[in-house]
């Protein structure tokens, strides 16, 4: 491995084979950008992790523990930081232990090569056949049950596009494989809700919260295939790549990246402030 | 840990922190009974694992590798054997690596204390609020995305019953938390299909395949709450506990365990033969 990792604060410690994260995906994770020595939007990542722990009934790490962890990370060069928190070991089968301690894994890896052209020229996306199951108790949080995304990424590997759009079983578009989706029609920007499935992405939240600052009407609402195909502008958002314009959806070409550019500058500015 | 484990054949080896099983639940598992020095229904477990690997596109371990692994296990006292196979390490995010090697974890732990009274007196079950999402690509196989079962087991901990019945979002009963369900009405025994969600349990398969030998009409079909509440007999099946009669569903009491007893004897006999 070309990365550093810490298990419960101990560098390069082994991961226990009886951990419930491995057994059942019983945990959560955050993938975070640290392009300049600090984790962008750390407070939002920390809050989403806390929300996920609450939802799953995991006694997550306290703020002091996380602050100690952060001190250990070497972020002197641009890095991707991954924090994974599981319910730890124990319990009888699926049933969690009565008094369980969570386990945490921090991983720091080198910043990936991202082609800067994607921000100027946009990416190509297609609709995927892989669907997301609707399941409200797990919706929105970034849990470790990610086989749907793995299957979607496998489907994507067979296509000549850069990303894929996932629907639920009603045909509603939810998100891209590892990014949230925004579509603009005239002056109104819409992103699908994540109340039944999908992940409440941190950059998505920054944008929703920043609508007033941005002076853009941004709302959560139903997005169907036709809404994507007839959009004036489409962009996807994620913690590592930020805001990325879409230049084609299936055979439909998009040429206007202006809102994506405005939103991207805003998100980047927010990251520095955090 | 009070158990032995092997990672890719190496005893007590560490589990890599970048494994995709931990990251995404990108893998499968089998929980198997070895009550008398051999793994019951091993061939069926092996086949289900193979099917799961095929479905997820994981190049699973070959038969020779698994045979070597089996030689290492100390099954001199009654044990539960757990085999976990993941897609291994690597890939870009969710996307699997082009040429990935699977990783396997064998774990042997002591046979659990099972109260023999459950086979004579039956267990109490209730309907759970936790639902199972319908998702055909993952249905039937025993993958590592088990948060639904963890949440169901948490709900069960708050109830004064022994097991819980899970429905999908249409209200169809699918299975118990970690067991399959059978209901008998008159001469006909029904078990819910596992084509949209649920696990195709090994003992369930033994029973379905053995219907002719058993001289019982056993079919896969829709089971709703009323079908459970109005059943003449209800039983649940799993690899570790085998065939367990149900003595109450919510406030409804059941007194006839005769089919469960017949089926249990048949399943146990099949396990010895395997």
Question: If you had to describe this structure to a student in words, what would you say it looks like?
Answer:
2 copies of one chain form a homodimer. Helix content of chain A is 29%, strand content 29%. Chain A has 274 residues and is an alpha+beta fold. Chain A folds into 2 domains: 4-110, Aminotransferase class 4, branched-chain amino acid transferase, N-terminal domain (D-amino Acid Aminotransferase, Chain A, domain 1, 2-Layer Sandwich); 117-273, D-amino Acid Aminotransferase, subunit A, domain 2 (D-amino Acid Aminotransferase, Chain A, domain 2). The longest helix of chain A has 16 residues, at 258-273. The model of chain A has no long low-confidence stretch (mean pLDDT 95).
Task: Offer a quick outline of the entry.
The structure is a homodimer of 274-residue chains. Chain A has 274 residues and is of the alpha+beta class.
CATH topology of the largest domain in chain A: D-amino Acid Aminotransferase, Chain A, domain 2
Largest chain-chain contact? A-B, 55 and 56 residues
User: Poorly predicted ranges of chain A (pLDDT <50, ≥5 residues)?
Assistant: none
Coarse shape of chain A: globular
Run of helices and strands of chain A? EEHEHHEEHEHEEEEHHEHEEEH
**Secondary structural class of chain A:** alpha+beta
**Whole-number mean pLDDT of chain A:** 95
Amount of beta strand of chain A: 25-35%
> Main sheet of chain A?
9 strands, mixed
Q: In the CATH hierarchy, what is the superfamily of the largest domain in chain A?
A: D-amino Acid Aminotransferase, subunit A, domain 2
> With helices defined by DSSP (H or I, 4 residues minimum), what is the helix count of chain A?
9
Care to count the β-strands of chain A? 14
The CATH architecture of the largest domain in chain A can be given as: Alpha-Beta Barrel
User: What is the straight-line distance between the termini of chain A?
Assistant: 30 Å
Provide the domain count of chain A. 2
So what's the CATH class of the largest domain in chain A? Alpha Beta
Oligomer: homodimer
